[in-house]
Give the backbone structure.
Amino acid sequence: MNAIDHWRRLARAGALLGCGLALGACAGSVERCPRPLGHPALTPARAAVDPRVAGQYVTWGGTLLATRHRADATELEIVAQPLGACARPRPGRASVGRFVALYPDYLATAALRLGQPLTVTGRIGAAHPDQGAGSALPVAWLHEARVRAWPLPPSPEWRPGIGIDVGIGSDGWRGGRVGIRF
């Protein structure tokens, strides 16, 4: 084997090692889908009226309605929706109740937006009357809440796109245009 072949083999081995390290790094950084806790039929609406479920751990999700800071905790009021892949809430699906997630410390809510999808895992506590809607209906509470915020979907008016228009006028004018919006 001559020196050139030797260096080519070393270069290939180095390239393979580099690819292996890069793939390993990527595989290590891929976030695993959380596995929801609790029975899927145990919705916030059911938990609000069934005191036997208190103390059970569940994973619920939905859309953020309001936040309130207390001296020892942060409350997140959420309208619940069924969970989809990776325990992500499915906005646009029918609501399965409302609940309040009680985060056991100060939670910086400045990064959260009203309408943002959240997934919350916690322990079901006693239901409380619904203060937000002004009714006496009970609302489920999740204590010891662990919160995952999902990115907001892009609004339709900000989506990039391409438009093509073609027109023929009554005076015989023909034309067209291509537009790109950002």
